[in-house]
Amino acid sequence: MSRSPIYESKNSFYVVICWILAACGGFMFGYDIRISGGVTAMDDFLIKFFPKVHERKMHAKEDNYCKYDDQFLQLFTSSLYLAALVSSFAASKVCTKFGRKPTILAASLVFLAGAGLSASAQNLYMLIIGRVLLGIGVGFGNEAVPLFLSEIAPVQRRGAINIIFQLLVTVGIFIANLVNYGTSKMHPHGWRLSLGLAGVPALMLFIGSLIITETPASLIERGKESLGHTTLQRIRGVEDVEAEFQQIVKASEIARGVKHPFKEIMKRSSRPPLVIAVALQVFQQFTGINAIMFYAPVLFQTVGFKNDASLLSSVITGVVNVFSTLVSLATVDKFGRRILLLQACVQMLICQIAIGVILQVYLHATDSLTKPQAIVVVILVCFYVMAFAWSWGPLGWLIPSETFPLETRTLGYAFAVSSNMFCTFIIAQAFLSMLCAMRAVIFFFFAAWIVLMGVFVLVLLPETKNVPIDAMAHTVWYKHHYWKRFMVDENCSTDEI
């Protein structure tokens, strides 16, 4: 079967604004990823909500690896991701029934409420409820924004445009690092400012949700074909969009014929994109990236940095994260998805093993690394973050958003988002306890996962560069050496296919 055409398009100012405004959902998500780790390193926050943790931290001879081990402290971070896991399926329904734009609007409003409650929390219960609201906002935003970007992007630039989401995730992380560095000196309520400023990216997303257009695929799927055609012309910047429009119409007709999406996605022929979407989320989290991003200040304190120095080191990793994501933005549609993932596996593996060896040999329970040793750890963390930022970070969101057919796209992507949030919840809830129990071995644990990730990409992940979303099945899955065996319609024989 011949390769699908690359449809003509021109970038208008309006469509570029739509990309950036929608991607503010990534800014919102990234800020929250990082802000919680910095707050949990602040003494004022610990004294108010986790006094026992603060007492352990103050003991000079307390075990380096165990002084932050507290299930409630970890619940502060992880509760958001448990809420996001559940809410992503509700977001899938909203996305399908009402569209991507209203789902993004809902995400911003709920996140704003969560930011306000977290910043004003007077007890642990208010704090956790605020985190749950933030999680619902993240679940809705992470469901709708990558789908929006993939559906509105021209096929030849889909990778780069979708990665704008991850770029703003890294910007959010970087801004949160700067905020934490500043508010750590504002006693006793600096942590409130850190948590409250999460409302800024949410407000930006709210304003953006009022300006952006709905995607043509969503409009046509919901029976608004004329508006979908007009919208497609507007975002492509050309009059002749008939070929792409007809492909979306055909996909929408199939989608409207599916009354039970959950049953459809459980079919054998739906297995390739579903398995890959879920596996990528598991691997993305078990690289160990969020263990570093959530708890970088804690981690750097563990290896011997003082409080200010540890926060400053986190700012440095944030800068590396942002600029390395730009590498992915520039290369993903040129070199493809697989090569970036495989190269990063090698680089991340080397860094994890090296960090593990240094800590295993030189960091014991009650002493610190020397300054040169600690600097080497920070450099290795930067090289690790660099590799993740141009590979598994953005591509973990991009690939699932571009591989599902329209009839299972929102539900399939909800599985991806929920899998990501579940694994993030596990890491956020367990990392400090794992650090206490496994010590430096935890880095070898993540290194083993990286080896498994590389094997998965080599054997099971096809290249999706420059393939129109609605032509993915015949262009990719039917031709893949392994997945083609699943592409048999349940109502037809293999010979008929």
Automatic annotation (TrEMBL):
Q: Which residues form the Major facilitator superfamily (MFS) profile domain?
A: 18-465
Tell me what this protein is called. Answer: Major facilitator superfamily (MFS) profile domain-containing protein
The UniProt family comment states:
Belongs to the major facilitator superfamily. Sugar transporter (TC 2.A.1.1) family.
Q: Where in the cell is it found?
A: Membrane
Keyword set includes Transport: yes
The membrane topology term of the UniProt record is: Multi-pass membrane protein
Q: Does the keyword Transmembrane helix apply?
A: yes
